[in-house]
Amino acid sequence: MTSTATMATASTTAGPTFKTIATPTASELLFADDTSSKRLYWDRSFYDSIETQKRVLAESATLYVGNLAFSTRTAQIRSHFAMVGKIKQIHIGLDRHKKTPCGFCFVEYYDRASALSAVANLSGSKLDGRIIRVELDAGFHPGRQYGRGRSGGQVRDDKRATGRRGSQSSLGSNNNSSDHYGPGMKRERENPAVEGEQTQGSSAPDESMEQSAKRQKME
Which CATH number characterizes residue 63's domain? Predict the structure, then answer.
């Protein structure tokens, strides 16, 4: 069974037009035969089975968004995801030590249909020059805004950095760059035990993720 939702499409006349899009149910997304279309993440740290998590996800209107550029602004995220529904809140992921953005966020909608539509239609879309991943999430809780990696960011950042150092060593490379990401490298989702920062609705539209994080830290 599928539900339907609307998504804005470009228009050269008086504003955007909307078309009806078939939106897969949570179960269909989770058990899709084609793994490339699988958009549900089983968080084994919090749920003993997929069925347990599905009971929570069945009412969730929250999304996990990965592979964001660190410089992506909250206003850009809001504009992109507002194409499929009205957004309630945005939570930005932070480096645990630096308190700066580290490449992911949570988006909360007012209704579940909008969240499902975003998974079906916005995952794989381009935002601020990067191809993003959009997955259903059981919901944001305080404390999830901080990365679990030893470096303070996401766990997979550490794994990639370690892998690159090993590769460089085997090749006799002297490149000691501290950049966590090479050209075109994607950030993969880690276990979301601690991710996301709440972005208040009063944030300035042109405020960057990093500026927002610094402002909240000062407050």
Answer: 3.30.70.330
